[in-house]
Structures are given as structure tokens and as C-alpha cells.
Write a structure and sequence with these properties.
The chain has helices spanning 2-7, 13-31, 37-57, 60-69. The protein has 72 residues and is an all-alpha fold. It has one domain (2-69). The chain contains four helices and no strands.
């Protein structure tokens, strides 16, 4: 829900996609309150991966399976 909202701030496709990917990923990592920079980067990367996977597959099953497999 946040990805399309953040992406709608720009008109061009690539900057909109990048903004829509970066903003929610950073918000997700900040809300997790990771004090370790490596863990923060991991949260950003996993969030971006799940967002891209959701956009490619247009389905939540693969995204949920990826999330469950990467939960530690």
C-alpha cells in the first residue's frame, strides 16, 4: 500500500519505482528499530526484495513464503 503511494509522488516510471521501493523499505527498517547497521541494511534489503517479488508475481503467496523462510 505504501509502495504505490510513495511512487505516485513522481511521474517518470523509473524514479517513481525507485522512490516507491526505497521509502517503504526505509520506513520498515526504522520501525524495526535496529541499532546495528548491518541488521538495518538487512531489513532494508529484505523489504525491497519482498516488494519486488510482490510486484513481479502479483501474488502474496510467494512473498509470504519468502518472509517465513527468512524469519529468524
Amino acid at each position: 500500500m505504501v509502495l504505490p503511494a510513495a511512487g505516485s509522488w513522481l511521474r517518470a516510471v523509473r524514479p517513481a519505482f525507485t522512490t516507491g521501493l526505497v521509502v517503504p523499505s526505509l520506513v520498515f527498517a526504522v520501525l524495526r528499530a535496529a541499532g546495528d547497521p548491518w541488521l538495518f541494511a538487512c531489513y532494508v534489503l529484505l523489504s525491497a526484495c519482498t516488494a519486488v517479488m510482490g510486484l513481479i508475481t502479483r501474488d502474496l503467496e510467494a512473498v509470504m513464503a519468502f518472509h517465513v523462510a527468512n524469519t529468524w
